[in-house]
């Protein structure tokens, strides 16, 4: 927490200097508000994070061309705040707007799509819409398989997410298969006592339990 406070202090000082040195709504302000929002997000102060990210987005709307990739990042950040606040319909709206912009601004199968599909899938998972969540998690995994080498640690999470959905749907053999694949990757990619490895064993055990 102490490091977050130091980061926040530095970002706020940077913003103060920019307010003196730059004209109103200069593009650099968007970066400042985004940085401040990200620190508040990591501190769990979601209302402050939301306010900062929304301010960043407002400035981008004035200074950046429509459908610029920066918009996708801003909507994603806002979606993540709403997600952690449990406001899933608002999170879904923001994440879907981010994805729409990515589809215009980025090449097919860009790694950012994997994160977007994962985020939207997680919203549906928490809303109990498991078939939609499964489809999106699988799409996220497909993109990561294109972008990453086999057994890359970033492949463990989508397999874990897919396993969790199958578990909720009562498809336990498929859940077990996915969790075991996640565990297999983590065993290769991580040190023996890494917390993610413990999580993989726990998830695999939960299918049996």
Describe the 3D structure.
- With 209 residues, the chain is mostly helical.
- It has 10 helices and no strands.
- It has a domain at 1-64: Serine Threonine Protein Phosphatase 5, Tetratricopeptide repeat (Alpha Horseshoe), CATH 1.25.40.10.
- It has helices spanning 2-21, 27-43, 46-63, 69-84, 88-105, 111-126, 130-147, 156-168, 172-189, 195-208.
- Helices cover 80% and strands 0% of the residues.
- The protein is elongated.
- The longest helix has 20 residues, at 2-21.
- The mean pLDDT is 95.
- Helix 1 packs antiparallel against helix 2 (27-43).
CATH architecture of the domain at 1-64: Alpha Horseshoe
Low-confidence stretches: none
Tally of DSSP β-strands: 0
The radius of gyration computed from the alpha-carbon positions, rounded to a whole number of angstroms, is 19 Å
Overall outline: elongated
Helix count?
A: 10
Structure described in brief:
With 209 residues, the protein is mainly α.
Name its key features.
TPR_rpt; 209 residues; TPR repeat; 10 helices; Serine Threonine Protein Phosphatase 5, Tetratricopeptide repeat; cytoplasm; TPR-like_helical_dom_sf; cytoskeleton; mainly alpha
Note the topology:
Layout: H1 2-21, H2 27-43, H3 46-63, H4 69-84, H5 88-105, H6 111-126, H7 130-147, H8 156-168, H9 172-189, H10 195-208
């Amino acid at each position: 927490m102490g490091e977050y406070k130091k980061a926040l202090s530095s970002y706020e000082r940077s913003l103060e200097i920019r307010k003196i040195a730059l004209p109103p709504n200069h593009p650099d302000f968007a970066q400042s508000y985004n940085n401040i929002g990200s620190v508040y997000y990591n501190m769990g102060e979601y209302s402050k994070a939301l306010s900062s990210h929304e301010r960043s987005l407002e400035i981008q709307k004035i200074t950046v061309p429509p459908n610029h990739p920066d918009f996708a990042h801003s909507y994603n950040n806002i979606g993540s705040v709403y997600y952690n606040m449990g406001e899933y319909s608002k999170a879904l709206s923001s994440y879907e707007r981010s994805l729409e912009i990515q589809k215009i601004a980025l090449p097919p199968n860009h790694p950012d799509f994997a994160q977007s599909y994962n985020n939207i899938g997680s919203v549906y998972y928490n809303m109990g819409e498991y078939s939609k969540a499964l489809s999106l998690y699988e799409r996220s995994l497909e993109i990561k398989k294109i972008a990453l080498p086999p057994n890359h640690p970033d492949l463990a999470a989508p397999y874990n997410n897919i396993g969790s959905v199958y578990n909720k749907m009562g498809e336990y053999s498929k859940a077990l298969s996915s969790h075991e694949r996640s565990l297999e990757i983590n065993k290769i990619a991580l040190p023996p006592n890494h917390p993610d490895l413990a999580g993989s064993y726990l998830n695999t055990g939960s299918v049996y339990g």
